[in-house]
Amino acid sequence: MASQLHKTLFCATLLLLLLLLPRVPLVKASLGSQGSALLHWKATLRSRQSLRSWNLNSSPCNWTGVTCNPVTGRGRSVITEISLPSMGLAGLLDSLDFSTLGSLLRLNLSYNQLGEVIPPAISTLSMLVSLDLTSNQFTSKIPIEMSSMKDIQFLSLSQNQMVGAIPPSLSNLTGLVYLDLDNNKFVGAIPKELGRLHELMYLDLGANSLFGSIPFGLGNLTKLYHLGLYQNQLTGVIPRELENLVNLIYLSVANNNLTGGVLSSFGNLTKLQSFVLWRNKLSGPIPFEIGNLVEVTDLDFSENLLTSSIPSSIGNMTKLRELSVFNNQLSGLLPMEINNIIGLTYLQLGNNNFVGHVPPNVCKGGTLKHLSLHTNNFQGLISTTLKNCTGLVRVRLEHNQFTGDVSQYLGVYPHLSYMDLSFNRLSGTLSPDWAKWHNLTLFRISNNNITGVIPTEFGQLTKLRELDLSSNDLQGEIPNSFGSLTLLYNLSLSNNQLVGHVPLEIGMLSNLELLDLSSNNLAGRIPDQLGDCMKLRSLMLNNNNFSGTIPLAIGNLVVLQDTFDVSHNSLTGEIPSQLSKLVMLQSLNLSHNSLSGHLPSSLTYMTSLSTVDVSYNELDGPVPDSPAFRRAPAEWFAHNIDLCGVVRGLPPCVSPGTPTRIASMVVITIIASVVFFLLLFISIAAALRFHKRKKPPVPVDNNHVKEGAFCILNFVGRDVYKGIIEATEDFDAKYCIGSGAYGSVYRAELASGELLAVKKIHLPDTEGTCDEQPFQTEIQALTQIRHRNIVKLYGFYSSPRRKFLVYEYMERGSLGSVLRSEIAAELDWVKRLSIVKDVARALFYMHHDCTPPIVHRDITSNNILLDSEFKACVSDFGIARLLKPDSSNWTMLAGTRGYLAP
């Protein structure tokens, strides 16, 4: 913010000076030839709507963005300025004949879409004093020829994608006052020759990939008021010579790898307003002389290795608006002199080793918005001034030793979005007045000594996404009003003394991903409505007094992947086979109940299970034969009636001897049933075959879903089928977002707002057999694996007329499409490395953690999908191969040309 203000003020001042330049001396080019050159350039632009006034019917002097001045000693005018910022221009500069524009003094083409190369011919603008190409799409190096533009004073190439090293020959531009090269891809060292630009007042080289040390010669630029070297890869110490830059207003070397200490001589830079050193490796104490910087409004030393305490001289810096020293190794007491700084808006001291009390008047001025004191050893009462600090937006006080009645120290904060008071020693009750924090998205007060009931009014916090009240002494019931918190994704009420039933309204929390009600005194049945929380990933109901059976609706929670724990309750009945739908679940704990009957054999489909505990129940019969059960210790099955099977420590299951009369009847009944259903199946198949031959194809309608096998893991099948057909207008091409060898992908937005990606498999145009293998392979692969970097399959539909697969929707599409679009500019090396790591994790999982291993065989940029945060997921398993342990390493050649392994 401060940097942008300084830049704006400087540009305005420099523009005023440039406007006072003398009249243009004699030049050879005529106004006509200059106009012709500009019209020719206009004709080459891809986007030029804003230049409609550029035509042969008017003088170039009357064109948009063009300024003319008379030539000295002649009765004619020539073009002296072209200013076209933010005009939506798209194209190249190569076709502009710069040789005809020798009279040009100022050229401003900033904030357009021009690229790719800055032509060397631009150096023929020998009279140019100001060149602004900020925020375009230039990707070339800085032309070495620009070093001959001796009169230039203002040069900005920032916010492009320019590459290469910064030419040392720029030091020839001795009249340069303003040089801005930030937000590009420049590499190499900062040229020490820049120290010769003695007129320089503004220098910004930030957000590049520069390395090496900061040249001590920059200390010669005594007129500098802005120096930005942030977000590079600079190393070494901050040169002592920078203490000579006594006119500096802005200094930022943030986000580098600088070492050494904060020099006490920086106390001489008394004009500084913004002093930013965050995210380096600076060590040692904050010097006492820092208090000399009485004009500083922004002081950020966070994310370093600073030690000792904050000096008391900080109290001299009464103009401070932001004080950030979080993530250091600072210790000791906070100086009481901080109370002198009454205009603070940001106070960020988190993750240090501070002790003692927080100064009582930390919010005396009432301007505080962000207060971060977390992960220290503060103790005592929370400052009483916070109660009237109504501008608070974000408060982090977690992991300290604060005490006192919390309801007495917190007020009404209409702008508050984040409040974390967890892991302290706070007491008191939850105030109903806190329901007036209408913008609250996160509230944590876990691991304290809070008593009383949960206010019903908390149901008014409709923007809440995370609510953690765990590990307190709360009593009473869970309010029914929680059903209004429809944005909630994390609800943790564990380790309290809550009683009563789980409200049925919990089923209305459609965005809920984590629900932890464990270790309370809750009773009654587990409500079926929990099966409506379709996004649940972790469900913990253990250590309560629940009774009745496990709801069949739990089987609807097909994205449940971390934990399902109902242990230490009083549950009865059989374990429902519907649990086998939880194919992503890693941990299942049903222990310490009164469950009876057999373990369903279908539990073998739960291929992601790593732990399963059914001990202390009344189960009998064989244990399912799957890796999760075979690897399990006997303790997880102990204290049941008569379990047997493949688990080490359990007795083997013995085949029965001569059947009794009842057993014989059971066998006969089973055989008869099998025969009956076999005959029924043959009859239906024959009828369908006859129907297919005799009847022409019918349009897709609501009954179409009945014709094929339909499995939508996360939704009610028929409703979703209809929703997909309606959302894509029966797979209209306008909803198609991609196409491949096996099918086309459509974007489907259901009436509920849920976004899905639907892959419709290509079927032959005439009657014939469709290659089922890619379709079946993709289903087989994706239903037995679960990983955060593998695209999630929600379900599939298969019938003679159509087949499609339903996936989670990835907002940014494929990596290939991103790399070919404008979004590629956002893919810096950090994001690209993260994408590579995501794909590597997925491949490692498939090759080493899956049984049997899965070989994808077609990893291409088009088969890697990205979400809104650029998290990568591997997709398209149509030619994947599931390796058997005893198979050879030879397979048929498969994959995409250009991506095959050599």
UniProtKB/TrEMBL annotation:
It catalyses: L-threonyl-[protein] + ATP = O-phospho-L-threonyl-[protein] + ADP + H(+); L-seryl-[protein] + ATP = O-phospho-L-seryl-[protein] + ADP + H(+). Keywords: ATP-binding, Glycoprotein, Kinase, Leucine-rich repeat, Membrane, Nucleotide-binding, Phosphoprotein, Receptor, Repeat, Serine/threonine-protein kinase, Signal, Transferase, Transmembrane, Transmembrane helix. ATP binds at K760. Residues 1-29 form the signal peptide. It comes from the Eukaryota. GO terms for molecular function: ATP binding; protein serine/threonine kinase activity; signaling receptor activity. Gene3D superfamilies: Phosphorylase Kinase, domain 1 (3.30.200.20), Ribonuclease Inhibitor (3.80.10.10), Transferase(Phosphotransferase) domain 1 (1.10.510.10). SUPFAM superfamilies: L domain-like (SSF52058), Protein kinase-like (PK-like) (SSF56112). Residues 731-902 form the Protein kinase domain. It is a single-pass membrane protein; Single-pass type I membrane protein. It is found in: Cell membrane; Membrane. Its main location: membrane. This is non-specific serine/threonine protein kinase. The lineage of its organism: Eukaryota, Viridiplantae, Streptophyta, Embryophyta, Tracheophyta.
